[in-house]
């Protein structure tokens, strides 16, 4: 009964944050820090709640993008390109029907390939030694710096800052304080909640607040079931575009550190490239643009769990938050003990599939009310979200230091945004800093310097990292510039 209750709560919670403009799964996950103690007695409930929340938010993201022309999160911005023009033509329900069916179908396909087989991937991961783990960390860092942003040099700077911030606090071996600048509060390390709230969420909220007067209000949207059914048929007729988008999203999700923004834009770009001379140009309400993009939606969310669960290396920045939340309640992703815990994999898989099915039907019902809710002026969302972020960020001590750190992180986030320094790279660096330090120290004590290049698996991972570097320097034209 507890399982079902938290599944439904997580689904409703995630759907709500998906529908709210610029919120998405990231802000929803950050808010959990405020009531994380609820899950300490039974950590498996946190697995259920967060998994359901991520899936439902991915479904809900489409509504704000299609109905308002404001992305529910960065990953759904590509859906907006053709989805919102369809709404302006009175075909919003058709676009939402196509988005729902395509996203759900690809979520089921790739979710099956990921979650049903994760227990079988785990024994392979257990054979990885220190050189392989170090090489995988290197691949994660190269991917987030050179693929996630065209400003690769600034990505390296952001990554280095993130690693530095992740090392602030007590040294794990000597117990000495480092990089605290005499502030005792930092002895326990910089807390994850205010950092991700200030760096990831706050700049997006401020951007949306400044642009609130540009919000386009759609007076009506035809919600007849015929339109929704037509969207379903469109999804089937153009299933190749949806499946191609799902494949792109799944591949991007497996590569550590990249995230949904790149997956969605690449899926959209592939759809445009494979469909020339369309009667309805892309960007003016072509249904294929919605289908191709939504194919990658839940596919990427599912595959991002592979590096996160198996290696403890986040597949996207929202997975970095999940790793932090799980660690608070005693679940260490990527640890040998967890990889042999079949009950954990069962809980993860069942939560994913049930929340996907529930979200699909909830989305169908919500189409009828989409205009009324998503057309609310952004100012009504802004202050509650800000209050939620603040509350979640000051749970560490409850004293003035928590508020000071939150304020500093917000200013820092605005600085990163202003100078196009990759915030995703910074968060990935912060989360993996201790893992990098420990793995590197073990490597230099136990192995020769060139062993990482001569072992088959680690050598292959280094080669992939090199490919990412070459691509980032010479070929990367991504539209995602600084996330």
Keywords:
483 residues; mainly alpha; two-stranded antiparallel sheet; 1% strand
Task: Please state roughly what percent of the residues sit in beta strands, choosing from under 5%, 5-15%, 15-25%, 25-35%, 35-45% or over 45%.
Answer: under 5%
Q: What is the SS-derived class?
A: mainly alpha
How is the quaternary structure best described? Answer: single chain
Low-pLDDT runs of 5+ residues are none
Q: Order of helices and strands, N to C?
A: HHHHHHHHEEHHHHHHHHHHHHHHHH
Q: What's the overall geometry? A: globular
Total count of strands: 2
The tally of structural domains comes to 1
Rg computed from alpha carbons, rounded to a whole number of angstroms: 22 Å
What is the arithmetic mean of pLDDT? 84
- Which sheet architecture does the biggest sheet show? 2 strands, antiparallel
Approximately how much helix is present in the residues? Answer: over 70%
With strands numbered from the N-terminus, the spatial order across the biggest sheet is 1-2
Give me the number of helical elements: 24
SSE topology sketch:
Elements: H1 2-19, H2 24-31, H3 43-68, H4 77-88, H5 92-115, H6 118-125, H7 130-146, H8 152-166, E1 169-170, E2 177-178, H9 192-210, H10 225-237, H11 239-254, H12 260-274, H13 287-295, H14 297-303, H15 305-311, H16 317-328, H17 336-339, H18 342-367, H19 370-374, H20 379-393, H21 400-418, H22 423-446, H23 451-454, H24 456-474
Antiparallel strand pairs: 1-2
Helix pairs in contact: 1-2, 1-3, 1-18, 2-3, 2-9, 2-16, 3-4, 3-5, 3-18, 4-5, 4-13, 5-10, 5-11, 5-13, 5-14, 5-18, 7-8, 7-22, 7-24, 8-22, 9-20, 9-21, 9-22, 11-12, 11-13, 11-14, 12-13, 16-22
């Amino acid at each position: 009964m507890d399982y079902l209750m938290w599944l439904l709560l997580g689904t409703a919670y995630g759907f709500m944050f998906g529908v709210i403009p610029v919120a998405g799964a990231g802000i929803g996950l950050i808010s959990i820090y405020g009531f994380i103690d609820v899950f300490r007695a039974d950590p498996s409930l946190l697995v259920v709640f967060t998994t359901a929340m991520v899936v439902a938010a991915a479904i809900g993201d489409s509504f704000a993008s299609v109905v308002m022309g404001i992305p529910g999160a960065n990953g759904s911005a590509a859906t907006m390109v053709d989805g919102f023009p369809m709404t302006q033509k009175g075909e919003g329900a058709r676009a939402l029907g196509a988005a729902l069916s395509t996203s759900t179908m690809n979520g089921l396909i790739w979710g099956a390939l990921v979650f049903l087989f994760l227990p079988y991937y785990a024994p392979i991961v257990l054979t990885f030694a220190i050189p392989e783990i170090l090489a995988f960390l290197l691949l994660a860092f190269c991917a987030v710096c050179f693929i996630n942003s065209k400003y690769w040099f600034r990505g390296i700077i952001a990554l280095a800052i993130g690693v530095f911030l992740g090392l602030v606090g007590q040294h794990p071996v000597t117990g000495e304080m480092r990089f605290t600048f005499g502030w005792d509060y930092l002895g326990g390390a910089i807390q994850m909640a205010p950092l991700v709230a200030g760096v990831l969420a706050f700049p997006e909220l401020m951007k949306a607040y400044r642009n609130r007067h540009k919000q386009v209000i759609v007076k009506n949207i035809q919600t007849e079931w015929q339109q929704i059914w037509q969207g379903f048929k469109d999804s089937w007729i153009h299933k190749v575009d949806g499946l191609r988008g799902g494949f792109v999203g799944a591949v991007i999700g497996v590569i550590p550190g990249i995230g949904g923004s790149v997956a969605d834009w690449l899926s959209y770009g592939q759809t445009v490239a494979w469909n020339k001379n369309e009667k309805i140009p892309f960007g003016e309400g072509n249904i294929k643009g919605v289908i191709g993009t939504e194919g990658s939606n839940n596919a990427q969310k599912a595959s991002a769990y592979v590096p996160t669960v198996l290696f403890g290396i986040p597949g996207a920045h929202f997975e970095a938050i999940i790793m932090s939340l799980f660690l608070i309640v005693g679940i260490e992703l990527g640890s040998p003990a967890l990889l042999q815990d079949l009950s954990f994999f069962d809980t993860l898989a069942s939560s994913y599939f049930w929340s996907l099915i529930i979200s699909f039907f909830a989305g169908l019902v919500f189409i009828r009310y989409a205009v009324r809710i998503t057309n609310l002026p952004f100012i009504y969302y802004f202050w509650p979200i800000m209050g939620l972020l603040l509350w979640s960020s000051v749970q560490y001590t409850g004293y003035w230091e928590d508020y000071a750190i939150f304020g500093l992180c917000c200013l820092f986030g605005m600085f990163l945004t202003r100078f196009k320094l990759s915030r995703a790279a910074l968060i990935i660096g912060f989360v993996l800093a201790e893992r990098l330090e420990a793995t590197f120290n073990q490597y230099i004590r136990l192995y020769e310097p060139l062993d990482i290049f001569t072992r088959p698996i680690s050598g292959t991972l280094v080669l992939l990292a090199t490919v990412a570097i070459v691509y980032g320097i010479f070929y990367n034209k991504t539209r995602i510039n600084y996330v």
